[in-house]
Amino acid sequence: MKRVKNIPSSTRAKNLKYRVVYDFVTLLFVYNEIVPEGVAKRQRHKEIQELVNVRMEKHREIMTGNMIGFVIWAIVGVIIIGLGVRAYLSKKAVGFWANIRPISVNDVTGYNRAVGKLFVIYGVIFIALGLPLVSGQNSSFILLSVLGAMIETIVIMAIYSLCIERKYKEQ
To answer: How confident is the model at residue 158 (pLDDT cuts 50, 70, 90)?
Structure first.
């Protein structure tokens, strides 16, 4: 954040105290570091600019309330779905675990499709689990989102390890 010169440090500090703003800014910086340069990245940047400059401005009264938390949650879900589509269409074996090389597989296309479908399903369920955020972050239903995301993550790790990896790992 210190590299952003046109925002005074006092304004940065004030706005980053808000958890939602901090998480959104962090998400953008991580996305920028992880996703390689290309058409898809430029398109996502245009979509985010349109979201912030047009849609959020047009619906300011909604975005200042409960909706912003869900919007950020949904953006994360859409990024996960995008990773799934990318894995599904990849010609080389994709990795499931962070910072670990992909396993040697006997059927690259089948393996990539299985991992891609897993990520797409995970992203869709993740977005659905964020729906309690619309009713407010102080709602008791927020526990459904948090616990649901934790359980969902454990389940996809188990599905990957017990089903996909066993089926496609080269012996």
So the answer is: very high
